[in-house]
């Protein structure tokens, strides 16, 4: 493989990290819903207290259970998987990979565990503890600031709050609750401490560099939340904290020590692809039987991208393609050829035409000088 400095090296990649949200973590490890995908903690103990030294699940036991499928038949296999604490997985991809422990490979997920997970819970608990009207009024009273988003209508009316909106809320959350008395004259001290501890954990977990001291602060913040979370039980807001996402905070320190800071395996980066591969694809459908239409849309988009890459390559190396100079590519009249683009029919999928997508490619637009079909057609013929 060619590395970033252009040198070709012999590489032996090892599967070390699996980046995904909670359903994906369960899918790849075979754990059941509501369980931790890393350690064999009981569901009743989830979120009870902090313990960063829990042993991980026994990989050897799981591999032995998976091996019974080929030797002892499906009945023994199902029983062995159940005893190993996993769902029956049919030869998972990591089974035979060298030096791979799938339970080590499960990593923290800031977006889904913190912003869209525990922080989302915390905001709803705070809204229950104080009145929604008072919190919204406090949001509106905050003076505008360059680094803060001003929620002029409050935070309770937001629907489908995104990760970035939760980031904005986190910046003002502590300011909203400080000095606000609880109903019935209860002391808000533990609530403020629990909120602050969770926010401390949130920001420490995102540090771009760590020392032993910062990792200790991370654990201290989590311990402070566990020490003060009982306020939500006393107020009648929660009965328990059996949240797998809250429990997973126990594993943050070990994961950071093993795999580096959390920005190395943050799902926020891959989550961006939902827009290109899912949301845009869905918008191109007629909302009926959308999966097949989205698949066709993606297939066509891939073909167009490959074709655009071919054209870019051709422009870079005109002398290597005898008979087809780069000037030929742009010299054709735009309307002299029929369009090769599959166009949507009345009964067929309503997908975006390739022409419209090529238009969105800046490099390609530059090459064609504003005439999309003048470029696409001659090269399509030249490539036969
Ligand atoms: Zn665990």
Automatic annotation (TrEMBL):
Which domain of life does the protein's organism represent? Eukaryota
Name of the protein in its database record: Uncharacterized protein
């Amino acid at each position: 493989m060619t590395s970033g400095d252009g040198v070709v090296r012999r590489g032996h990649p090892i599967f070390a990290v699996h980046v995904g949200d909670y359903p994906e973590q369960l899918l790849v490890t075979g754990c059941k819903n509501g369980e931790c995908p890393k350690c064999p903690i009981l569901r009743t103990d989830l979120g009870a207290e902090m313990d960063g030294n829990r042993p991980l699940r026994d990989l050897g036991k799981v591999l032995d259970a998976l091996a019974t499928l080929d030797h002892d038949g499906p009945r023994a296999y199902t029983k062995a998987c159940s005893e190993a604490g996993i769902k029956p997985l049919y030869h998972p991809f990591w089974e035979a990979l060298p030096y791979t422990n799938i339970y080590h490979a499960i990593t923290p997920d800031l977006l889904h565990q913190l912003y869209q997970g525990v922080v989302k819970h915390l905001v709803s608990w705070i809204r229950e503890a104080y009145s929604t009207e008072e919190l919204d009024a406090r949001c509106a009273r905050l003076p505008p600031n360059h680094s803060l988003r001003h929620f002029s209508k409050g935070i309770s009316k937001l629907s489908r709050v995104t990760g970035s909106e939760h980031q904005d809320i986190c910046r003002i959350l502590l300011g909203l609750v400080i000095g606000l008395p609880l109903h019935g004259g209860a002391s808000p001290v533990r609530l403020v401490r629990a909120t602050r501890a969770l926010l401390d954990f949130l920001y420490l977990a995102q540090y771009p560099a760590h020392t032993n001291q910062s990792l200790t602060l991370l654990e201290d913040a989590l311990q402070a939340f566990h020490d003060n979370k009982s306020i939500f039980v006393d107020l009648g807001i929660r009965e328990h904290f059996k949240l797998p996402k809250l429990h997973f905070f126990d594993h943050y320190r070990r994961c950071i020590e093993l795999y580096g800071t959390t920005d190395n395996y943050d799902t926020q980066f891959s989550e961006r692809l939902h827009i290109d591969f899912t949301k845009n694809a869905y918008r191109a459908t007629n909302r009926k039987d959308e999966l097949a239409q989205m698949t066709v849309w993606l297939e066509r988009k891939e073909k167009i991208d490959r074709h655009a890459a071919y054209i870019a390559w051709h422009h870079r190396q005109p002398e290597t393609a005898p008979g087809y100079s780069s000037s030929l590519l742009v010299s054709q009249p735009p309307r002299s050829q029929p369009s090769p683009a599959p166009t949507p029919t009345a009964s067929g999928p309503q997908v975006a035409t390739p022409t419209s997508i090529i238009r969105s490619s800046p490099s390609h637009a530059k090459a064609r000088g504003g005439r999309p079909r003048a470029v696409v057609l001659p090269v399509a013929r030249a490539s036969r």
